[in-house]
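Subject: Sanity check before I submit

Could someone independently write out the structure tokens for this chain? I want to compare against mine line by line before I put it in a report. The sequence has 165 residues.
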Amino acid sequence: MLEIILHWAGQFPKDYVVIIVGALPVSELRGAIPLALSFGMSMERAFWLSVLGNCIIVAPALFLFEPVSGFLRKFKIWSRFFDWLFERTKKNSDSVQKYEALGLAILVAIPLPMTGAWSGIIAASLFKIRFRYAFAAIITGIFCAGLIVSALCSLGILSWKAVSG
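---
Independent answer below. Compare away.
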């Protein structure tokens, strides 16, 4: 899927492509930072563009996730999808349920599959964490995840080939 998006986005400036990949639920920072580095960007530029892309979606998604998912759940296919999504998020969100905002920051900060800003947004909605706490926790988690991914890339442990391939 990322390859299709990158092919389509190839006509845009590389900075924009990194921001878009950083905002996507599948890739987030785990994909955007290695992608930026594969474009030849500096680590600092890769970090800030990726974090920007990941942060852009937080406020709108926190406000819109619950009403949009509530509306879509009226349709059988979407209801099944959201049931699956919520159950999967609950499995990965024990710390969020127990520690609320701190747990939410930890969930977002761990750069593994089914964690990140999008999972944090879903968890904040599921556990009814107030916007200001959820927003601050998710943004904090994004910065921490960005630092972790940057460190893994600097050490040669994570690369665009490993993420996309």
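---
OP: Matches mine. For the report I'm noting this point. The two ends are 11 Å apart (CA to CA).
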